[in-house]
Amino acid sequence: MPATPKPPPYRGRFAPSPTGPLHFGSLVAAFGSWLMARHAGGEWLIRIEDLDPPREVAGAMAHQLATLATVGLQSDGPVLRQSERSPMYHAALDRLLASGDAFECHCSRSALADTRGVHRQCVATAARSDPSIRLRVRDDTVIGFADAVRGDYQQDVATQVGDFILRRADGFWAYQLAVVVDDAAQGVTDVVRGADLLDSTPRQILLQRMLGLPTPRYAHLPLLADGHGRKLGKSQAAAPVDAQNPVPVLRMAWAALG
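Structure (tokenized):
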């Protein structure tokens, strides 16, 4: 009887966008991800999601990495920058275009206003010089998965999301495609992140299936709460982390994680 193959070693990651200082909500996600990786005896990586240059803040990446290092959260491997990964995204997009699973879209946001942005068919009346590229989501595409924190989750991608963008009209890569390509390339086995990204996960699983990539395990951390279980306000969650006084910050993050 052939031996059962061993599962890949645990590998988690944290992927901030360099749009400003590291805020407390991001620190909680980073700390939770790091804790789960250490508990499993695995690796923890940092990846910079610098896909949107107009929103980036000069020096933010270095500041975020320095803040993480000050509180003891350092990557177990080289820090990957998505801005340097365009050839990999192109290769994935070309595969989807060749298979008919992706298509050029000339629709504007205003043209999709009647469907609240959900694209099910092109309604543009004229071609654009800068079309976006969308994933063709077939009817009745329902994706479900078991989340380690939230339990079973299911989404009708066709009706709730529609044909979603892979490359924007301005030429920048969409988050959904880049994150799927990079999770696979880095051998990420477990994605631990905030609950605000829960509804993105079915889109990513759909892309993984279309590209023949492995699907990691997912855990979406709950909304932030203080030590008494009360929900933190947006201003508190978005407050910059005081890296000069790391112990109280880590205690607050520990309490927020429950």
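The beta strands are 11-14, 43-48, 80-81, 102-105, 132-135, 142-147, 151-156, 165-167, 190-194, 217-221. The mean pLDDT is 91.
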